[in-house]
Amino acid sequence: MKTNILMAIAIVTGMAVNAQSQKVQPWSGKNPKEVRQVARPEGFNLPVPGLDDKQREEIGKIRTEQVKERTQTRNLLEEKRAKLEVLQTADKPDMKEIGRVIDEIAAVQAKEMKAKAADRQKIRSLLTEEQRIYFDAQGAGRDRMRAGRKATIKND
Fold this sequence. Notes:
The protein is an all-alpha fold. It has helices at residues 2-24, 32-39, 53-88, 95-125, 129-155.
C-alpha cells in the first residue's frame, strides 16, 4: 500500500516538474535558430573586426592555455564539492572540516577569477583601440546575460 502511494506521489511530482520546466522555457518547440536569437540579443558575441593573422595566433595560444588551466581547475572544484557533499551528509558532520573545504573552494574560485582577468588583459593588450571596444562590449554582454540567468534562477 505504501509503495503504491509513494509511486503515485513520484509520478505526480514528476509531471509537475515537467510542466513547470516547459513553462520556464517559452521558446521550447521552436527551431534552434530562434532559440539562439532569444538567448543572444542583437550585437552580442560580435567578432572583433580586423584581426590580423598574428593577433589570431596569439589569441589562439592564450585561449588554448585557458582551456587547459580551466579544465584542471574545474576538475579540482568538482572534487572539492564532492568532498563537501560527503562531509555535509555525514551522520556526525565535522564543521571545522566543512569550513576548511569551503575555504579551499573559495580560494580555487578566486584563483580562477584572477586567471581569467589576467588572460582577458593579455588579449586586450594585443588589440587596437577599435578592437578593444568590440572585445569589451562582448564581455559586458556576457556579464549581463549571466546576471539575468542568476536573477531568473533566484526568482523561480
